[in-house]
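S.,

Sequence below, as promised.
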Amino acid sequence: MLRTIFLLSLLFALSNASVQDFCVANLKRAETPAGYPCIRPIHVKATDFVFSGLGTPGNTTNIINAAVTPAFAAQFPGLNGLGLSTARLDLAPKGVIPMHTHPGASEVLFVLTGSITAGFVSSANAVYVQTLKPGQVMVFPQGLLHFQINAGKSSASAVVTFNSANPGLQILDFALFANSLPAELVVGTTFLDATTVKKLKGVLGGTG
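The prediction came back faster than expected:
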């Protein structure tokens, strides 16, 4: 009898245990590796769990003829702490999302409009490339170099999702040429000639 009472008491206690369902980002506080601090639940609104920015095409008037509209915790506070995020890609004709990697997440690409050629390179240097039509999906494993290019003559768009609130981003071209790494070191580590390296540094705003 005592054992039964104990088990019932334990079950009752567990059923009433405090569970933190969400952690809406307090954007007035600094972000940490674990995300933003939570705002108090009493201040949470339904609109914190809604983001409308992906419905508007991004500005593709730039060097890559493409735009990325993020919906991370900084733009979409309700995502904070949930281990996921999303973004919109817009590619004008000849638009490209250059070779890049997300150190902290795998990515799923869902094509909305147009035609997009996408691919990634494995750690064994195997190449996987596919031209995608609206409704098709492609996955890019975490940490691997990948890209997206507009494969048609009209604009293309897609939505990407990540299994991390902070997937991270490193664009290969910018990592090589948009910084202060001395040109001779870039030449020595890429097998490119000095003229090409200096030209690319000039285009992308690098020095050295």
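The chain is about 20% helix and 25% strand.

Coffee later?
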